[in-house]
Amino acid sequence: MDVPPKNAPRLFLIDAYALIYRAFFAFIRRPLINSKGENTSAPFGFANFLLQIRDRYQPDYLAVVFDAGNSHREKVYPDYKATREKMPDELRFSLPRVRELVAGFNDALVELDGYEADDVIGTLAVKARDAGLEAVIVSGDKDLYQLVGPGIHLLNPGRGGPAGVAPEWIDESNAHEKFGVPASQVIDYLALIGDSSDNIPGAPGIGPKTALKLLEAYGSLEEVLAHAGEISGKRARESLTENVEKVRLSKQLVTIMTDLDVDLNLENLEVREPDSPRLHRFFVEMEFRRLMERFSPTEVVGEPPPDDSTSSRVSPGVMPTIDAGREGEIKGVPEYPGGQDTVSDNLEAIHARHELITDPDLLENILIRARELGRASILVYTSFPDPHRAALVGLALALEPAESFYLSFGHVPVGDPTLDFESPVINNLPDMGSNVLQPLLDFLEDPKIEKVGADLKASAVALARAGVKLAGVGVDVTIASYVLDPGRRKHDLETLCQDVLGFSLRPYSDVVGVGQKKISFSEVDQETARSYCGQQVDVVLRLAERFSVELEAQGLGRLFRELELPLVPVLTRMELEGIRIDTDFFETMNDRLGQDLTLIRQEIHKVAGEEFNLNSTQQLREILFEKQGLPALKRTKTGPSTDSSVLEELAAEGHEIPRLML
């Protein structure tokens, strides 16, 4: 993509929600999830958008513009955007993270209460053009083509991958390529065809081809309507003559406002150096390794200590990992350090045979033997601790001591996350729902074959999310340990192996790393996973054999079989079912809080003696320090500060507007 040389300083206006949605849905099939279970797709994608804008286009000024209403279009047309799907909860929860990200980049965040971002962008673009700047609108929204003209450009950022869309710079020379009309006719064109995404009606029955012919013949929408009775095509003629007001309403709805009360404050919009320490802390929390490295402090005192609490709290069947860490650049994971293996000599047998399975044809003989034995130990491995949200990575099976198999389902390359249309380069088994894996599903769901495990409930939940109903729950070594010795310090697999069998399993931190270099279990190479998981599932089988004997010897077998084990599927179903909440109650609470906020806003405006945008730092500063005459307690480069600490201190002094705002 060729970017024209600058003729004047450039103001980049970023359509926040357009890019947030694009980032979120780019990873919809394999969302980025950090170790806390938080979906980080939108913050990750948005961070890279911001960096791309800065690195590639070097803007002089920049604003990230958010929606804050429908610009009162719903008052003109109550069904405006009525057909839009509700924003996914995971995306809605990401919005504060994106705002935090924008603050870390020291970029201006602009929103006007009650108005859509398109209208704020349109106003700022026109003001920038009139001030002698070039405005560059960053969005893929088709409505914004109407603004393209001298001094106003459009940048569609595109998306990556072999099937992706290249970035596109749109100006007067190529704006017509989108719809077949110049930018000056986009409003009329959209008014004729309507817009299903915004529920704008248009002229029923008139599609893009007919709209182009009409505008080519008559030049404008008003001329089309004035000559509607002369149009030769019966369908178009009847639609236009019968829906004149509907078409004019559609034009009103699609027209972007360019005259809102929004200041073009170039001092606030000037591109500044990012707040690197703040961004580094943010990226550490999000677990974006490559980005945290880019913004790492110049002086690093030391690596953060390992989080030992994770391995003690999380069962070995559902691995504590970081899915969002796929975007890092870790070269691999360490093997046992030579001469320092803490595993004692009696572990030799456990290394005897751990086979990696990526070919469905190899499963037949394994499953036949499992049916003959009537028992197998299993462990399920997922990308991070929460089995309700994590992706299935692998399944380990052990049939006899020193004989285990690791079935690989979801291993991915280490490095940047890949979009859903990019082909994986690692050979895995197909999804659990495929026909070729039906024998495996039959085995897992067969109640006659006993499944031995560690935290079988978590394994059952993870399998259920993959479409498998685990049946035949047998010995769960973590539960058996508790029944035998409730006072034991821990009941996780690593502790039981050390306490009962007398040797140490390979530490989890040795496999995935710690601190900033911690990776997802899905990023662990298959050979390492084969060895690690093979050892664990082998230990489960050995512990189950020993605990079964001890339970009977201590007279606890019946308690274990008839009380403890039957609870496993019950608790599994409870977790999968979840908790029902009273949505009407919470909607009522939301409405009440909204009304309370409206009353507070009205009271602030009453005290101030005029209406103003509470989200505008410039307007708030003018009200507090110029018109109300309050003392400026702290100053920034652009004037008196209005941050929370200042408002708190002013409220404590008895000033009404700061008190109401808090």
Would you summarize the structure shown here?
Residues 6-272 form the 5'-3' exonuclease domain. It comes from marine metagenome. With 662 residues, the protein is of the alpha/beta class.
Q: CATH-wise, what's the superfamily of the largest domain? A: Ribonuclease H-like superfamily/Ribonuclease H
What would you report as the Rg, rounded to the nearest angstrom?
A: 31 Å
Largest sheet: 6 strands, mixed
Indicate the CATH topology of the largest domain. Nucleotidyltransferase, domain 5
- Helix and strand content put the structural class at alpha/beta
Biggest sheet, strands in spatial order?
Answer: 3-2-1-4-5-6
CATH-defined architecture of the largest domain: 2-Layer Sandwich
Total helices: the number is: 27
Report the span from N to C terminus: 48 Å
Total domains: 3
Average pLDDT reading: 85
Determine and state the CATH class of the largest domain.
Alpha Beta
Contiguous runs where pLDDT drops below 50 for at least 5 residues: 299-351, 418-423
Helical proportion? Answer: 40-55%
Tally the beta strands. Answer: 14
Q: Give the overall shape.
A: globular
Q: Give the amount of beta strand, in percent.
A: 5-15%
Keywords: DNA-binding, Hydrolase, Nuclease
GO molecular function: 3'-5' exonuclease activity; 5'-3' exonuclease activity; 5'-flap endonuclease activity; DNA binding; DNA-directed DNA polymerase activity
InterPro entries: 3'-5'_exonuclease_dom, 5-3_exonucl_a-hlix_arch_N, 5-3_exonuclease, 5-3_exonuclease_C_sf, DNA-dir_DNA_pol_A_palm_dom, DNA/RNA_pol_sf, DNA_polI_exonuclease, DNA_polI_H3TH
Protein name: 5'-3' exonuclease domain-containing protein
